[in-house]
Write a structure and sequence with these properties.
Structural class: mainly beta
CATH architecture of one domain: 7 Propeller
Strand content: over 45%
Number of strands: 30
Radius of gyration: 20 Å
CATH class of one domain: Mainly Beta
Shape: globular
CATH topology of one domain: Methylamine Dehydrogenase, Chain H
Number of helices: 2
Largest sheet: 4 strands, antiparallel
CATH superfamily of one domain: YVTN repeat-like/Quinoprotein amine dehydrogenase
Distance between the termini: 24 Å
Strand order of the largest sheet: 3-30-29-28
Helix content: under 10%
Length: about 350
């Protein structure tokens, strides 16, 4: 059974306040099309992130801009340029208008904590040189005597360093994991475990005892090519891994059972193949080497939809949390929503 998800028809102005309850099905997936596109980028979108509890989306682009969107009404709220440092990867912190991003200028690849509200840098984190991945996890550390109930951000950068960043004037190295090759990393939503993918396998770590090494190592069907991205489903029961071999693997995150492998058109060596779970974990959507987008039903393993594109590289792709919408980023930003006029079940209710 799919889950019942409420999504808003925000495209088209004031009428976007209407809400419709729909179950995510193959028919819904097949009806999805671009409801709004932002074509004012002067470079490819390199990264984007949804805030967990607000309606905000942030993007980073090769045109050295960071842009904040309100997805509930499909509007760009703010554009901030990072011409001096460049920008590659971007991610929200727990605060809806504070992000951390990596530089991209060849001489200063520090991480920067930026307030989008007033365009001010709150912290700089130096000493990083690899831009392989950036994911954030929020913890409340009540046991810290000098900072009761202190909210800190725990993040991976390039998965080679795990940093404990206090919202004070100090930073301490929390841990260091050295790996061979290009790794990909992800936390589960509860922050209990994290995954490190490289060399044809996924290593599972307990975030509280990671120094003891992985508690499980999962094989990914003989695909030993470099990892691109690894992600958990919202409920933490599944993981997906994309690789340079242009494959999307889906695994059971508890047993490591390989549930399916999906092949897409070849991806160039300097591109990243990205994929995303639907909110209910029933479907996977992915980019492809020719810019096309694919969707598969995880339970049946069947391809349920394909959208062709004039692009020549795989897009950045993310499903909006708890919504019937996914977003793709390439030379433009596109919001994909169901076309209700194509849905017999909905039309019959009107």
């Amino acid at each position: 059974m799919g889950c019942m998800i409420v999504f808003g028809l925000f495209v088209g102005g004031p009428d976007g306040e209407d809400k419709v309850s729909l179950e995510l099905t193959e028919e819904i997936i097949q009806s999805m099309e671009v409801g709004m596109a932002f074509r004012d980028y002067n470079g490819r979108i390199s990264s984007m992130d949804f805030h967990r509890t607000s309606n905000y989306l942030v993007t980073a682009s090769d045109d050295e801009s960071i842009r904040l969107y309100d997805v509930s009404n499909a509007t760009c709220l703010k554009t901030i340029n990072s011409k001096k440092y460049g920008v590659d990867l971007v991610s929200f912190t727990s605060h809806p208008t504070t992000v951390i991003y990596s530089s991209k200028n060849g001489w200063d690849e520090s991480l920067r904590l930026l307030s989008l509200h007033d365009n001010k840098y709150l912290r700089y984190f130096k000493g990083h040189h690899d831009r392989h991945g950036l994911c954030l996890l929020v913890y409340v550390l009540e046991q810290i005597v000098s900072f009761p109930a202190l909210l800190i951000e725990l993040f991976f950068f390039g998965i080679k360093e795990l940093i404990n960043v206090r919202l004070a004037s100090c930073i301490c190295l929390y841990g260091l994991l050295r790996v061979k090759g290009r790794p990909a990393t992800a936390y589960d939503d509860q922050g209990l475990v994290f995954a490190v993918a490289f060399g044809g396998s996924i290593r599972m770590f307990d975030s509280r005892n990671y120094e003891k090494g992985p508690y499980e190592i999962f094989s990914v069907g003989g695909d030993v090519s470099d990892a691109n991205v690894v992600k958990f489903s919202n409920d933490g029961k599944l993981m997906l891994l994309t690789t340079k071999d242009s494959r999307v693997h889906v695994l059971d995150s508890f047993r490591g059972t390989l549930l399916g492998t999906y092949n897409v058109n070849p991806v160039s060596s300097d591109s990243t193949l990205e994929a995303s779970f639907s909110p209910d974990g029933m479907f996977v959507i992915s980019g492809s080497g020719d810019g096309s987008i694919y969707a598969w039903n995880i339970r049946s393993g069947k391809e349920v939809a394909t959208w062709m594109s004039a692009e020549t590289e795989p897009p950045v792709i993310k499903w909006a949390p708890g919504s019937l919408m996914f977003v793709t980023g390439s030379s433009e930003l596109s919001f994909w929503i169901p076309d209700l006029s194509k849905l017999a079940a909905y039309v019959g209710r009107k």
